[in-house]
Amino acid sequence: MARGDDETLRIRLTAEEDARLDALVARTGRSKTFYVHRAIANHFDSEEESFWVDGATREWESSGRISRPAQTLWKELGL
Predict the structure, then answer these.
(1) Using CA atoms, how far apart are residues 27 and 70, in angstroms rounded to an integer?
(2) Is 54 a residue whose pLDDT tops 90?
(3) What does pLDDT average to over the chain?
(4) CA 26 to CA 9: how far, in whole Å?
(5) Could you tell me the maximum CA-CA distance found in the chain, to the nearest angstrom?
(6) Full 3-state SS string of the chain
(7) How confident is the model at residue 1 (pLDDT cuts 50, 70, 90)?
(8) CB environment 5-18: b (16+ within 10 A), e (fewer)
(9) Alpha carbon 38 to chain centroid distance?
């Protein structure tokens, strides 16, 4: 999507969420859109990391490799 071809998304906020957003906007002078974009971006980062961790864990578990507690490995490495 090219810049300027932004999509519009309508969401419903609870009264509490809307009040919190309004208070934040009033304190900072930034727009509601700014904070909604920021919240979505942060959520994507978190979700993408969770999916990566899940995939890496499944790959490790299906590899048949043996794991051991981190403290055991640190001790073996003299850490």
Answers:
(1) 45
(2) yes
(3) 91
(4) 23
(5) 56
(6) CCCCCCCCCCCCCCHHHHHHHHHHHHHHCCCHHHHHHHHHHHHHHHHHHHHHHHHHHHHHHHHCCCCCCHHHHHHHCCC
(7) low
(8) eeeeeeeeeeeeee
(9) 11
Question: Whose structure tokens read 């998304």?
Answer: 9
Q: Can you read off the two tokens belonging to residue 50?
A: 């969770």
Tell me the percentage of the chain whose pLDDT exceeds 90. 73
Buried b (16+ CB within 10 A) or exposed e, 28-38: eeeeeeeeeee
- The token pair that represents 4 in the structure block: 């300027």
